[in-house]
Amino acid sequence: MIKSDLYQTCLKGGYADFFEDRVDNTKIYKVFKKYHNDNDFQEQDFIEQVCESEAEAYELAMKSPRLLNIVPTYYFVNNVVIHRLFSIDDIEISQNYYLELFFCVELIKKESETKTLDFLKQCKVSSTVKGIHQSILDFHEVGINYMQDSSLIFTSEHDYKFIDFALIGPDGDEDNESTFIEVDINKLIHRYTDSGFFN
Questions:
Q1: Of 22, 27, 29, 46, which is the most exposed, with the fewest CB atoms less than 10 Å away?
Q2: Domain positions in the chain
Q3: Would you tell me how many other CB atoms lie within 10 Å of the CB of residue 179?
Q4: How many Cα atoms are found within 13 Å in the side-chain-facing hemisphere of 140?
Q5: Distances (CA, A) of 21 to 5, 10, 24, 73
């Protein structure tokens, strides 16, 4: 087993924060917190379900030829044990996290990041829009049913990767395909469908 000391990055979330191994800067670890948004204590059983839902979604995406290249690479790190966690100021903060609840993905050097729905709401007609719309359908097709909180990391103007997706939502919810895709997204891009852009 490999015992790792990890160091906090500026990337933070409601249920987890991101840490890096300073020896290997190609990977990033999402480690799940005991306190949601740093305030409300979360039981380990609940956080374990959230972690598993996200990690298993990455595993499914890795098996899909359509999704493989639009998500960060997922690494199987069963031989890694988190020994200690340190803040950006090098203060140990291990006590605030469930050290056994984490997964590891490729560190993406990004130009920008935005929520998927926000991007679609603000975008202009383009092949990128069409690709994102189709990709969300592809996620649902393989069983990745929670895209509501997903974000897009852009590595260039037209190249992107999805993050923050899961099999189900943190409250056990799934995005009903008819509401999330047909209602929410199609309303946002309705101005394009009339012209046959998505046909």
A1: 22
A2: 2-106, 112-193
A3: 10
A4: 17
A5: 7, 14, 5, 16
Strand partners, 163: 151
Query: 6-15, long-range: CB within 8 Å, 24+ apart, which pairs?
Result: 6/31, 6/82, 6/84, 6/85, 6/86, 7/85, 7/86, 7/87, 7/88, 7/90, 8/85, 8/86, 8/87, 8/88, 8/93, 9/88, 10/88, 13/164, 15/42, 15/47, 15/50, 15/170
The total number of residues shown for the chain amounts to: 199
> Which pTM does this prediction carry?
0.82
> Over the stretch 141-193, which tens digit does the pLDDT of each residue have?
999 989 888 999 998 878 899 999 999 877 765 554 434 444 344 544 444 44
Query: Distance between terminal CA atoms of the chain?
Result: 52
Contacts of 43 (CB under 8 A, 6+ apart): none
Beta partners for residue 114, in sequence order? 152
